[in-house]
Design goal:
By secondary structure, the protein is of the alpha/beta class. The chain has four domains: about 5 and about 30-225, Nucleoside phosphorylase domain (Rossmann fold); about 230-235 and about 425-520, 4-hydroxy-3-methylbut-2-enyl diphosphate reductase, catalytic domain (Cobalt-precorrin-4 Transmethylase, domain 1, 3-Layer(aba) Sandwich), CATH 3.40.1010; about 245-325, Rossmann fold (3-Layer(aba) Sandwich), CATH 3.40.50; about 330-410, 4-hydroxy-3-methylbut-2-enyl diphosphate reductase, catalytic domain (Cobalt-precorrin-4 Transmethylase, domain 1, 3-Layer(aba) Sandwich), CATH 3.40.1010. The protein is built from 17 helices and 21 strands. It has helices at about 45-50, 70-80, 125-135, 155-160, 170-175, 200-210, 215-225, 240-255, 270-280, 305-315, 325-340, 355-360, 395-410, 425-435, 450-460, 480, 495-510, and strands spanning about 5, 35-40, 60-65, 85-95, 105-110, 115-120, 140-145, 165, 180-190, 230-235, 260-265, 280-285, 295-300, 320, 345, 365-370, 385-390, 440-445, 465-470, 485-490, 515-520. Helix 3 packs across helix 7 and helix 11 (about 325-340) packs parallel to helix 12 (about 355-360).
């Protein structure tokens, strides 16, 4: 018979209704009740470990018993505990070759041995991130439940289905969640390569149970983040035309020339994009002296100084230039204005590759200006011949503050004929402002070295929203979500759209979630590829 207990192993209490408040015309808002976590643990030792794991004090632990039949019967006890969220904790066997004893598995879905999916766990990446930050080695993927211990060929057959771990209960416990947020966290005690023998049964079992006791705080954070909420997607977001063009340049270069194709610096500032291209044969280098003489090299979307082009010619490198056309516009302006005798003041951030490339167009004739405070110390030869340019990924309002300071110091200063801050940067900043006006929390997907992604965070914060930059869903801290009823999501122009989709999907696993878009318009701009990687036109004239 299944038993249900609090952490202290006492009978499940009846929770009285909260008082509704008093007063003829006004009722104070009730404090939000902490979401109730119910933990299902198959064996007595697993339930004891869960009870000592530091779970929230009102957690209910249900000892289900071993195997599908007992697990199925235990679902009634899980439902009677009135959960807001249900988690399965226990030990398991590893199937994936990368999994080792002592590792933690977080299920994305649970299946029975015949392949039937009985439950999905969309929030798994969020929980896995919390567990990794607790110092645990974590794997995320499907878990399969079978009626008896899987050994030998049976385990190999299960591994071939793509499941990363096997147990005897999780798939049969998922109905007990009744549509509430559901998580499965298992600690691996054996694998096909490291089977569990009599001599190490006690040692590995004890190690696994000790690891189970480390899961309490992350699971408590997961449960605390459970609530009904809204997700607002900023539009436009993610890839812009210049980034899409740069990525396609590398992809086509690999098709034409084969691997390796060398790329100077990161083709765009996003770790996921760079890693994906590296797996396909792109080799990223910091400087051209790392590229073999005569090899093919791609210049990144951020542009390069003329000195870099000269070095490439000297090394007889085959160059494919993926510089964004809007960055190249700023380079052309720098050449034109300095050629006519102007002092050019470049508004931007030191060390950014785009800024380095633009400064290199006329060394000594272009001065970098990073803030309004820096304007007072600028000296120019002729105050009547001063021009300003901008890095394309600046925050609009900050850039205007610098321009205002420059105009105050140099009344005759002129700017470019058209805006330097690119359309994609402007659009994403305006869109994120729209969601920030409604959101308790704004999450911006992008890499730390992405200037336009960092600007989205800064813009959101200046508009009063709590905002964080995350590389992917795994970097989202559950504590950020606990008090957030409305979450806005955007992504830098170099972030792949699928990362936003993964984050949105994970948030829907934390309770009933409505997803809406806040759009300021769509983008239809596309840039022509460099001639070196264009395909011959097809019958429709398309390349």
């Amino acid at each position: 018979m299944s038993t249900a207990t609090q952490n202290s192993s006492v009978p499940v209490p009846v929770i009285p209704a909260q008082p509704a408040g008093t007063g003829p015309t006004w009722k104070p808002a009730r404090p939000r009740r902490r979401p109730r976590l119910v933990v299902a643990a198959p064996l007595r030792v697993e339930a004891l470990a869960a009870g000592r794991a530091g779970l929230p004090p009102d957690t209910v632990i249900v000892r289900t018993g071993m195997g599908p039949e007992r697990a199925s019967r235990a679902n009634q006890a899980v439902r009677e505990a009135k959960p807001d969220a249900v988690a399965v904790m226990g030990l398991a066997g590893g199937l994936d070759p990368d999994v080792r004893p002592g590792d933690v598995i977080v299920a994305t879905e649970v299946r029975t041995g015949d392949g039937t999916v009985t439950g999905r766990c969309p929030s798994a990446p969020l929980l896995a991130g919390e567990l990794r930050r607790a110092g645990l080695t974590v794997h995320v993927g499907p878990v399969v439940s079978v009626p008896r211990l899987a050994v030998g060929t049976a385990r190999a057959e299960l591994a071939a289905t793509g499941a990363i771990a096997v147990d005897m209960e999780s798939a049969y416990l998922s109905p007990g969640a009744s549509g509430k947020p559901f998580a499965v966290v298992r600690v691996i005690v054996d694998t096909a390569e490291e089977p569990l023998g009599r001599l190490d049964l006690f040692r590995r079992g004890l190690t696994g149970l000790r690891t189970l006791r480390r899961l309490g705080e992350p699971l408590g954070a997961w449960a605390a983040a459970v609530r009904q909420r809204r997700v607002l997607l900023a539009e436009p977001r993610a890839f812009c035309a210049g980034v899409e063009r740069a990525i396609e340049v590398v992809e086509r270069a690999l098709e034409i020339h084969g691997a390796p194709v060398y790329v100077r610096k990161q083709i765009v500032h996003n770790t996921h994009v760079v890693n994906d291209l590296a797996r396909r044969g792109a080799v990223f280098v910091d400087e051209l002296d790392e590229v073999p003489v005569g090899a093919t090299v791609v210049f990144s979307a951020h542009g390069v100084a003329p000195a870099v082009r000269d070095e490439a010619a000297g090394r007889k490198l085959s160059v494919i230039d993926a510089t964004c056309p809007l960055v190249e516009k700023v380079h052309a302006e720098a050449r034109r204005f300095t050629a006519r005798g102007d002092t050019v003041l470049l508004i931007g951030h030191a060390g950014h590759e785009e800024v380095d490339g633009t400064l290199g167009e006329a060394p000594g004739r272009i001065t970098l200006v990073e803030s309004p405070d820096a304007v007072a110390s600028i000296e120019v030869e002729d105050p009547e011949r001063v021009t300003y340019l901008m890095q394309t990924t600046l925050a609009l309002d900050e850039a205007e503050e610098v321009v205002d300071a420059l105009r105050g110091r140099f009344p005759a200063i002129v700017g470019p004929g058209s805006a330097d801050i690119c359309y994609a940067t402007s659009n994403r900043q305006n869109a994120v402002r729209r969601v920030a006006a409604e959101a308790d929390l704004v999450l911006v997907v992008g890499s730390e070295n992405s200037a336009n992604s960092r600007r989205l965070v800064e813009v959101s914060r200046r508009d009063g929203a709590t905002s964080h930059l995350v590389e992917s869903v795994g970097e989202v801290r559950l504590e950020w979500l606990a008090a957030a009823d409305t979450i806005g999501i955007s992504a830098g122009a170099s972030a792949p759209p699928n990362l936003v989709e993964e984050l949105t999907e994970a948030l829907t696993g934390l309770g009933q979630t409505s997803v809406a878009t806040r759009s300021i318009g769509t983008e239809s701009i596309a840039f022509t590829l460099p001639k070196e990687v264009r395909r011959p036109p097809n019958n429709n004239g398309e390349r």
